[in-house]
Amino acid sequence: MTFRYAAMLAAPLVFSSTFAPAADLGSNGQARTPMMVEADTYVVTITATGQAKPRYPGADDFIALGYPSVNVRRLGEAPRFAAQDDGLSISLYEDIPNFRIGPVVRAQGGRYYSDDRRLVGLRKINWSVEPGIFLEYFPVSFIRARVELRYALNGAEGFVGNAGLDFIAPVDRWTFAIGPRIGFGDANYVRTYFGVTPGEAAANAIIPAAFRAGGGVTTVGGVGSISYQWDETWGTSVFGGYNRLVGDAGRSPITRLIGSRDQWTFGASVSYSFNWTR
What is the largest CA-CA distance in the chain? Predict the structure, then answer.
């Protein structure tokens, strides 16, 4: 396996990578804190994250990403739990207790011959942006359910999404989280990354025959994280995840003969928080 590096700037006002240090979580997934609330004072959290992930869906090597994110909340409003594999999102509706909904976006790197000569003859896939919508619900204080439905644009086109549960365990300054994940995509999306046309099979030296991929469930796996809040200012987190390509994504000759069905992700983050008064 090899590593390659890229940098990505995340949009502002997205999720925080730190977690609440208090052990008492409210029913909406927020940790209760005894802070005094000032109407025009906010807590700004700036997070720097480093992450290694498969360079493209089905790849057997990694790309290293470094990106910042910013979270703004009112003083006295504790940070919500956010998993490191969440898309960049903004909550627009929170009137129903324990429920959030809003826009989300993800980015997906491209697949290029210059990165792997074994891909010669297969289609080049440019980077993609995947805007969409997310829904999040806390049935109880320590369980979060989240679904994202997105539409890929530019390199790939088609509907893609993922769903998962997170089991959250705050212990003093520590927060432990783990949960299962499932990914899915429509036929257009899956065919872009895992399909092989007769012309591509003839031009590629490794893949012997065409493969027509269909939509459906593409991955099953899970993620976990360990976070520590050093004080009101600094927090750190380490995380990792594993997804197994299934369905036509796992049966594709691109996956079996060039890439890998095993898709690992891991990384770490550090966050800095400060008060801001308008």
Answer: 68
Least confident of 74-78, 252-256, 262-266: 74-78
Percent of the chain with pLDDT over 90: 73
Of 69 and 59, more confident: 59
Report the distance separating Cα 74 and Cα 125, nearest Å: 42
Q: Which residue from 239, 200, 216, 188 is spatially nearest to 52, judged by alpha carbons? A: 239
Q: Is residue 248 scored above 70 in pLDDT?
A: yes
Say yes or no to pLDDT of 194 above 80.
yes
Reduce the secondary structure of the chain to three states and give it as a string: CCEEEEECCCCCCCCCCCCCCCCCECCCCEECCCCCCCCCEEEEEEEEEEEEEECCCCCCCEEEEEEEEEEEEECCCCCECCCCCCCEECCCECCCCCEEEEEEEEEECCECHHHCHHHCCCCCECCEEEEEEEEEEEEECCEEEEEEEEEEEECCCEEEEEEEEEEEEEECCEEEEEEEEEEEECHHHHHHHHCECHHHHHHCCCCCCCECCCCEEEEEEEEEEEEEECCCCEEEEEEEEEEEECHHHHHCHHHHHHCCCEEEEEEEEEEEEEEEEC
State yes or no: pLDDT of 239 exceeds 50: yes
List of residues 6+ apart from 2 with CB closer than 8 A: 61, 62
